[in-house]
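Model: You mentioned two targets. I'll fold them one after the other.
Researcher: Yes, keep them separate.
Model: Target one:
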Amino acid sequence: MNGTSISFQANGGSCGGHLSFPESGSGPGVIVLQEWWGLVDHIKDVVDRFAEAGFTALAPDLYHGESTTHPDDAGRMMMALNIADTAKDLAGAVSFLADHEAVSSSKIGTVGFCMGGQLSLFAACANDQIGACVDFYGIHPNVQPDFANLRAPVLGIFAELDEFVTPDNANELKAKLESHGHSPDFHIFPRVNHAFFNDSRPDVYDADVAGKAWRLVKDFFSENLE
């Protein structure tokens, strides 16, 4: 890992996270939001990859030290997430990054995976400091973004064979965003499953499609944040 563990002010206390800087010393700011597993090495690696691509990136630890590799535990932790407290953690993360001397952009980007994808939309709807939002196959039944308040452009990345967030679910989300006057850029990649971007899961990871999605995300943030 090239990044470092940090702590920032949030929710009247503190929240941990993984922060990584580009070689140039500064770049557009990006918040990376975890899957239901927690702030695991894969998410930290994604933060470091953003730094290698020229961004200053932060992944807040929304489980405050808990993580797991077991789906049952992950589901329990996801459903136990206090959404009001999480909203404050997200606001703290955005404020911390927006004020950081290593951030060159006036707005912050958010990107999340699975649970984090839905939280990426949620954060963008709650915070006008967010200037670009990416949702990788986002799902969380208790997280309801207020699309009427959304000001950021949205990139959606989905999977044809996803049984958690089906193509129909993705199309319904796209239609909902459009009904609020937005023009989201949604991509449903064929022949891949939920979590196809996660290279720590050989059962679902697809290197070719993950590479295509990564290029879309980098271009999207470069266009909307720089």
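Model: Target two:
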Amino acid sequence: MTAAPPLAEASPIPRRRVISWALWDWGSAAFNAVVTSFVFSTYLASGAFVAPAVVAAAGDDARNPALVLAKAENATVISTALTVAGVLIALLAPVLGQRSDGSGRRKTWLAINTGLVVVAMVAMVLVAPAPPYLVFGAALLAAGNLFFEFASVSYNAMLVQVSTPRTIGKVSGFGWGLGYVGGIVLLLLLLVAFLQSFGVDGRGGLLAVPTGTEGGAWDVRLSIVVAAAWFAVFAVPVLLAVPELPATATGPRAGLLRSYRLLGSTIAKLWHTNRQVLLFLLASAVFRDGLAAVFTFGAIIAAQVFGFSPSEVIYFAVGANLVAGIGTFVGGWLDDRLGAKAIIVGSLAGLVVAAGGVLAIGTEARLFWVFGLALALFVGPIQSSSRSFLARVTPAGREGEIFGLYATTGRAVSFLAPGLFTIFVGVTGDTRFGIIGIALVLLAGLVLMLPVKAVQRSID
């Protein structure tokens, strides 16, 4: 069994290339922070999509059982749409990644899938604040997630093109951290321009756009359009500055069915020659599902359980991104010194403790700031170190395929956190107890990660 070639330790990577690559992470905050976490998802889960009769009957009672149940049902619609997207990602991501290896078209697929994400975001402006638009909005959210994951396969595979063995952790952390900083800047921009009330009823931001159900929720809808433009602009530098890998004879030129057979062969070879990669993919599949749930449902919990207004959710989002960015920059620096596994395991343990704290505080909003920001602190380092860990153990020339598997395994069990969240909410009738399901998934991922070792071998 021969060792696979390590990452090239050649001349230093030009700083312009690293920054251009990382700007895609900066731009992707438009989707991660604005769409999936703090603005559009909470908009879909809000009372705007509850039947008017239920809202009228509840009046000012936010804890009215019928209203709480209706909002929980809306959260279930969102989680169901994301589960469907997860199934499609699981089926298609590894094959698309495999077919990009050696084809000389990695940047092309990054551009195509990023463009489709932007199109889905622009279409979200059509989601008016009325119950009939809920399914349409959830479908756009699912479509955005689908193409975002496809784009991420190509983007993550490019990590080895902009780093060396000595800098891969730092470069990965720089990208993730820049994404969180980008989220802060964009959220503040949207807050000032559209979302913050400046004392004028029914008007939001300095642009005084109509807000609320009566005003057509244009504050939210226009925010998504600006976010789409943001992503489109900052996705351009990586396409211009990072050289495309040349096409090679090893790049698969197979049809779709044969691509699945090649994928099966790769998995079998991994099992026999590089089992640690499979073990990591399994562990990361579980804990990354928990990470996704932290941000997807965290803002929903803040709004429904702790009574955060839309503006307060954005303030919390800014704080969460700031803390997550700090954690990611520090985690990336420690990654190259302590190893990616140590960062992942330590951060997962911190997440489980913080999730328990959110459950224990009841509905005390001030304490949610403490434990909610603690959750954000540990999310970024796990995401960054997971990317660098896999890049280190992936045989050279197979990055697209293995990161495709990474996307697939991350979605293959994507029903876990949303499913457990839905079960606990359904059984208790209270969105707050959904955090139990998320904590259980994170704990399971931690247990599965403990025996994984960073070993790289050839799979040929």
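Researcher: Noted. Anything on target two?
Model: DSSP finds 17 helices and two strands in the chain.
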